[in-house]
Each structure stands twice: as C-alpha cells, then as structure tokens.
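Thread: magnesium ion complex, take 2
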Amino acid sequence: MLTPDHPGLARASDVLASGGLVAFPTETVYGLGGDARNDLAVARIFEAKGRPRFNPLIVHASDIETVKALVNWSETADRLAAAFWPGPLTLVLPLREKSGLSPLVTADLPTVAVRVPEHPVARALLSAFGGPVAAPSANPSGKISPTSAAHVHNGLNGRIAAILDGGACGVGVESTILGLWDTPILLRQGGLPQEALEAALGTPVATHQSDDPLTAPGQMTSHYAPGARMRLNATDLKPNEILLGFGTVDNAALNLSRAGDLTEAAANLFGHLHALDAKGADTIAVSPIPDHGLGRAINDRLARAAAPRD
Ligand code: TXA
Ligand code: MG
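Output below.
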C-alpha cells in the first residue's frame, strides 16, 4: 500500500516501468495499471483480474498529446476532449499504425479506448511514468468495481505489486464510453451524463443496444455481481431482504442518497454494494432510481449486478 506522496509516486512509477501492476485512484473507480506498450505487463493485468482476453482495456494518459500518438484523432474528438478532459469520458477511436501499444490492450480490434483522467493522483502517476497506461477497473473480473484502496486490497491482494491509496473516488461509477464512428455511439453509460455529451455534440447520441462484439466487446450482461441476489425497483421489503435505499425510504440498511441526489448516489453505489454484500444478505432490494443524468449509469450497473449469472 503506497501513500501518494513523492516517494510513493516514484515507486509506483518504477513498478510500471519494470512491467509490474499498480492500482491507482481515478475520479471514477480505482484502475489496475500496467505499461500499455509492454505485452507482459498487459498480460499480467488480464491474469490478475481473471479477465477474458477478448475484452479490451482503456488506455490512460496524462495529456491529449500522448493520446494523439496512439489514435487517428478527429475534429469531434477534439471538441469533446476540450469540453470534458481531464474527466470521466472515454473515447474509442481508430488505432494508429505504429502506436506502440501492445496488441493485447485492444484485443486485436482496429480501435482503442482512451481517456485522460482528472484525479490528481492518477495525473501525478501518469506524468511521472510518462507513457500510456492500460487500466481496467481494479476488481476481479465480473465483480463489484472498487471505489477505495480497501476494495482493491480485498479483491486483488497478492496478485498485484502495489496500491496507491488516494481515498474514496468522487464520481463512483466508471467513465462514459463514446465510440467515435461516423456517427458517435454511446457504448457505456457512466460518470459523464449522456445529457452533457449531447449538449456538447449538439445532437442526440445513439445508445448501444445489441451485443455486437466489435462495438462493445466487454459489456457483459452479468457484471458487478455481489454474492447476494438483487431485486431492483423495490417499493417494499420481503423477509429475506435488506434494502439499499434511495430518497426518504424507511428500513434502508444503507441509503444511496436520502436527499435523492444522483451524484451522491453514484459516489456511494459500489461502496454500499460492497458493504451490504459483506453482511451476507440473501437478497439486496434496491429502491427505484430515476433514469436520467447519473441515474442512467447507476441503473445500468444495477441491472448488470442483478442479471442471471453463469
Ligand atoms: O472509469 C473507467 O473507465 C475505469 C477507470 C479505471 O478508468 N476503467 C474501466 O475499465 O472501467 P474496464 O476495463 O473495467 O472497462 C473498459 C470497457 C470495457 O467494457 C471494454 O470492453 C471497453 O471499455 N472497451 C475497451 N476498448 C474498447 C474498444 N476498442 N471498443 C469498444 N469498447 C472498448
Ligand atoms: Mg470494469
């Protein structure tokens, strides 16, 4: 466990440079970072998470110039980056020839997902390292995403070299992913609300519906799965259930936001799921969440957490 001070960041950067894995905080969730140009480092990420190799990773960079060396940049990308980077938006763009990225990062797709995170510790680490860092969320594949260093430790201890402890993540749900094809497609609801993207683009964006592996290779139906079963849109409570509330509901074991604030609810979502799951409940019932703004990302994660598992 490393403190994100000068010596801690220097050590974390050395670990990355030698092909090791470092978990680090971003404004969305903790990421599990490895040198995106190093095949062995990237292979270790898949191994540590137990992640299927066909599911590509997001490449993180400290600045737009680093990103531009990896992708065929576009005018739309420029507009969105100016509006939202650093921040919780990932863009999928055509992979540039001679990008230097390990082919494992993109799972051999002709595109790559890129983002410039806003968290000061992520920025400090990426600048100290000075290169592209591949980083999926720092949880075992299919499990609840981590929003604290303790979550990462619980899920991946013994499988990674270091964790930079930067406290709790402010946004709490993963980045919004936008595919920049001829027409942009929203591939994953996330920390940047769809409404904000549409305002910047000046048009509605299509949302991804099908299971086309080329556009959304990793959008597994079952994901974020707690050990407990989940029942969504619950307006009552059954005997074998504990309630994850939203708004002024009675009997909630934990409440995402008593004030009904979606920003607060997103920040609490994964932490509350981790905490309720640790109680060993049979079923977690969840209050209805309005489906706008960050509520869309919350409902997306809840639906995957509730989906039937293999
Ligand atoms: O907020 C976030 O995005 C966090 C933090 C750590 O940055 N990262 C994250 O990574 O959520 P991960 O691996 O859990 O999710 C990445 C998603 C996957 O669903 C993956 O399939 C998709 O991005 N993805 C990556 N490359 C892609 C590509 N070329 N085309 C389409 N989807 C892609
Ligand atoms: Mg993930």
